[in-house]
Design goal:
The complex is a heterodimer of chains A (239) and B (122). Chain A has 239 residues and is mostly helical. Chain A is 84% helix and 0% strand. Chain A has two domains: 75 residues, no CATH class; 156 residues, no CATH class. In chain A, helix 10 packs across helix 11 and helix 11 packs across helix 12. Helix content of chain B is 84%, strand content 0%. Classes of the chains: A mainly alpha (239), B mainly alpha (122).
């Protein structure tokens, strides 16, 4: 009997089916809880799914690479989903066009704030030079952030983690922050989420309001460009 | 739905090619987003199937970040010896960025409104 179970486990742990299924199960559980709590940002479905999956992988002694053999099918969809952000953007294009100067100013200021606040705080608390350089592009979508980190002498793999953590921070605590400073305009809320927390913040914005999601998508895309130009320039000035 | 997904993939593919050929500091999918956006402008509307497919993908955009989120487990040791500056910089830095960006955007939108009002009065 035990041998039978062992055999099933050996089989399952080598197919991508298991990694894919547990990813969806963890997310569905997280999403149901999120919906039950009326989309309370503290009950973020990404965070819940990660907190369920990491211990599961550790306990079952499953290496991340084997988990990813299955999870990659979900991960792959990030590309087409990013392309799909063009649709909400198109729907609200009249609002984007009307406020283009406002968006430009907020974007550049936000981009500089993201870099300086992260690097400044870590520097005050005594982080190493490599850590500071890895932190600089943390608010940008992962592939661009890793590219910037590599270019300026940071550690791309550390940057990838910091990007995810920044995204989750914004998705979980961003709504509270925006309520605290009493910014109610969906356009301003969306831009702020997209600049600080890229795709994960954008996903949260879409759960709340489609207009906020559209502006967040725009900010995410433009911030990738702004940060890629700004960070190397800032580093050159500061060092 | 298959046609919609095909459209999205073609835009991404062209975006990847443009990203590599041009050396722009943007990921292929973001360029793909711009390409699809330009296509919609030219066409002058969103085809209904594309709208529906997109809506269901974007409703669960969060799901797509789960595999990368789990990947954080691999790199936790990297953070371990400097966790205090890193965690503080990420949390405080992100929230400060959200607050300042939203605040500036709101101020700019107010300027814009005031400008329109005086413009209309003239």
């Amino acid at each position: 009997m035990n041998d039978g179970l062992q055999e099933i486990w050996v089989y399952l742990s080598t197919t991508p089916l298991l990694g894919l299924t547990i990813t969806l199960c963890a997310y569905v559980l997280g999403y149901r809880l999120y919906r039950k709590c009326r989309f309370n940002p503290l009950v973020n479905p990404v965070l819940i799914a990660v907190l369920l999956l990491v211990p599961l992988l550790l306990v079952s002694d499953t290496p991340y690479s084997r988990y990813f053999d299955g999870a990659q099918f979900v991960h792959f969809m990030l590309g087409p989903a990013t392309v799909a952000l063009a649709i909400p953007l198109y729907r609200y294009f009249h609002l984007v066009r009307r406020s283009a100067p406002a968006i430009g100013v907020a974007l550049v200021c936000g981009s500089i704030t993201a870099v300086l606040s992260a690097v400044g705080i870590a520097w005050l608390l005594g982080a190493s030079r490599e850590t500071l350089l890895s932190l600089a592009p943390k608010s940008v979508t992962t592939p661009v952030a890793m590219g910037i980190a590599e270019q300026i002498g940071g550690l791309p793999s550390l940057t990838a983690v910091l990007v995810i953590l920044s995204g989750i921070t914004g998705a979980v605590l961003g709504t509270g922050t925006l309520n605290l400073i009493r910014v109610r305009d969906w356009r301003a809320r969306g831009i702020a989420m997209g600049v600080a927390s890229h795709g994960i913040g954008t996903a949260r914005a879409f759960n709340v309001n489609e207009l906020a999601g559209a502006f967040s998508s725009l900010a995410m895309g433009l911030n990738a460009l702004a940060t890629a130009v700004l960070v190397p320039a800032l580093i050159a000035i500061l060092t | 739905m298959i046609e919609s997904i095909t459209v999205l993939l073609i835009c991404q593919l062209v975006g990847e090619v443009v990203a590599r050929a041009s050396g722009l500091p943007l990921p292929g999918p973001v360029i793909g987003m711009a390409i699809l956006f330009a296509g919609l402008l030219v066409r002058g509307g969103i085809p209904e199937p594309l709208h529906q497919t997109t809506r269901s993908i974007l409703e669960h955009l969060s799901l797509l970040f789960v595999p990368a989120g789990v990947g954080v487990m691999l790199y936790l040791p990297l953070i371990a010896d400097q966790w205090l500056p890193i965690v503080t910089a990420v949390i405080v830095g992100t929230l400060v960025t959200i607050a300042i960006t939203a605040w500036i955007m709101r101020a700019m939108l107010k300027l814009e409104r005031d400008g329109e009002r005086t413009g209309a009065g003239q």
